[in-house]
Amino acid sequence: MDLKKILEYQTIDRRLYSEEVLLEKSTENQKREYYLKQSRDAHKQLTASDKDAEALFKDAVKLINDLEKVSKKRESLSVSKFSQDSQVNATQKELQAYSEEVQTADKECKRILKSLDEIEKGFPQLISRRAQNFKEHQKFDEEFKKKQGELTLKFKQDIEKLNALKAEIKPELFEKYKKLREQKKFPPFAPYENGSCICGIEVKIELGGKLNTAGDMAECPSCYRILFVK
Ligand SMILES: [Zn+2]
Question: 186-202 burial string, b = 16+ CB within 10 Å, else e?
Fold first, then answer.
């Protein structure tokens, strides 16, 4: 009984399914998805830039703290005329180290400013790319939805029949059908003929025992379609 109903369902659904596939392949849908992806990519890049800027600000704070320590150290370094030679040497070494630290800090400061500048310059471009692509997406999305609406209207009677039939089919069997349909395995229910499935695989050894009399059903181990005996 269930098999008969689901096959009836499948026959009506076939035309709707093929038009849905055509709609999916349509320019409207391809462009709609393309622009959505572009817009999302721009958004991802914006988020990444934001994080980079945050990390650079942290580096800047660290640099300021380091510089404060270095400058305090510098204040304590002095050579008076009463200093002994060893003290003079030690102080000179420390002054040398101080100068190196300042140079390193200067380099780090330049790096931070350069990176922040690049990020800042990139922001407006990314924001406009995100907006433009999203606008394009919306344009094609509207066209796609319009076509989708036309399809629903065209198949209005069929859809009503399908809904009525669905109510007569066991939910688990219908779920199986729906899942296979979503995976583009149409027809989800296929006749078992010559020991093979329509996906091309021979299933005689695995399923032969389960598929003997009319109405018997079994799942193909390769494509998961439901095979039935006519
Ligand atoms: Zn198969």
Answer: bbbbbebeeebbeeeee
